[in-house]
Amino acid sequence: LSHVLEHMDIQEAVAVLSSYLPYVKNKAKVVVITPQEAGYRSDSTHRTFVDWSIAESILKKCSCSVIKTYSFPFPRTAGKLFRYNEFVTIGQYDKPK
């Protein structure tokens, strides 16, 4: 999900992600990309600031575990000024038995 979750509240984000997961294999990778501060402020349709901790919370509610987080393309400190810096959260879907 690239630049999707910040346009909804957390409950909606969980619902959207959960609706897709039955169609993926167990242990599939789930990638969430959201804007950092400058990018978040640049769009009036953004409703929820989704940083790594919020993305992790959403993934956990969807039976996913977080395996990696990083800032792209620059270090995290650039996100307050550079509009295109992003939070990247990579999870793994652990299909319920």
Give me some keywords for this one.
three-stranded antiparallel beta sheet; alpha+beta
Description:
- With 97 residues, the protein is of the alpha+beta class.
- It has helices at 10-20, 37-41, 52-61, and strands at residues 29-35, 64-72, 86-93.
- The two termini are 24 Å apart.
- The model has no long low-confidence stretch (mean pLDDT 97).
Separation of termini? 24 Å
In percent, how helical is the residue content?
A: 25-40%
Estimated radius of gyration: 13 Å
Shape: globular
Enumerate how many helices there are, as a single number.
3
What ranges have pLDDT less than 50 throughout 5 or more consecutive residues? Answer: none
Question: What is the number of E strands?
Answer: 3
The arrangement of helices and strands along the chain is: HEHHEE
Classify the beta-strand content into a percent band: 15-25%
Neighbour order of strands in the largest sheet: 1-3-2
Class by alpha and beta content: alpha+beta
Largest sheet: 3 strands, antiparallel
Mean pLDDT: 97
